[in-house]
């Protein structure tokens, strides 16, 4: 491990605790000049490291640089993590990595996506460092696991993680958009990879994009009124590393007992479309009705204005 990484690791272990240059040098068996050079390089990368002559160096609790050690440290289960400054899409990169990594779950994160993908063939606006863009790859999926539920569970995990770290009370717009104060702050795109031999789902790529802040000047016009940022107007300072590990921990807690469908109770409570008048398009035809329930497969049960019942298993609704 490079000196820079070793120094960072020391500062990460006890964020907010100051270490003198001498302590770092002694613990790592390096010179004070090397410590100083490492600190300078880390600051250049964007780490907020405070220093005082009396107490030493301290990593500010709000140092928002994507860092695999920092994420790993907070994870309940170990996970292989890859971080990029820029990729086309973390889901696309995850798919490419699946050719090399045949076993075990892994996580891809990026500061920026140049072709971030959304559901229904849309794009996902992913400017640099303003959002958490990540893809969790689940391998060896038991055949009994319903892929739709995997996505639904992710929506609940994101809400729980946000509540753990902030005062925000997120809600879900069916299927899996996360809303705060009437604006979408997170979208989830799940892609299943089929085994060529068995034609069954072999891996699932769970792509999660959370807008942390908004670069208001550069938001595409059509998104201005629709999207929000998790930290906009918030006191809480949450780093992308913290949010990533909280989402993953929450996700695995749910995933372990996904077949019990226990998490659907929480999904239904957070699903703000229930009881509301909705419209949607199916097979090029427009429908409207009342969203009545979310069934045990995560489908939306709708009582149409014609009084017929329809169950939607995917798609997009408007309210
Ligand atoms: C949607 O709202 O339609 C889904 C958006 C999903 C965006 C995330 S960001 C990380 C991952 N990589 C992508 O290209 N898309 C997902």
UniProtKB/TrEMBL annotation:
GO BP of this protein: protein lipoylation; regulation of DNA-templated transcription
Catalytic class of the enzyme: ligase
Cross-referenced CDD domains: BPL
Ranges for domain BPL/LPL catalytic: 74-259
Superkingdom, natural source: Bacteria
Sites where the protein binds biotin: 89-91, 113, 117-119, 184
Catalytic activity of the protein: biotin + L-lysyl-[protein] + ATP = N(6)-biotinyl-L-lysyl-[protein] + AMP + diphosphate + H(+)
GO cellular component: a single term: cytoplasm
Keywords: ATP-binding, Biotin, DNA-binding, Ligase, Nucleotide-binding, Repressor, Transcription, Transcription regulation
EC numbers for this chain: 6.3.4.15
Keyword ATP-binding in annotation: yes
A molecular-function term among this protein's GO annotations: biotin--[biotin carboxyl-carrier protein] ligase activity
A Pfam match: BPL_LplA_LipB
DNA-binding region: 21-40
Role summary: Acts both as a biotin--[acetyl-CoA-carboxylase] ligase and a repressor.
Family affiliation: Belongs to the biotin--protein ligase family.
Name of the protein in question: Bifunctional ligase/repressor BirA
UniProt organism field: Jeotgalibaca ciconiae
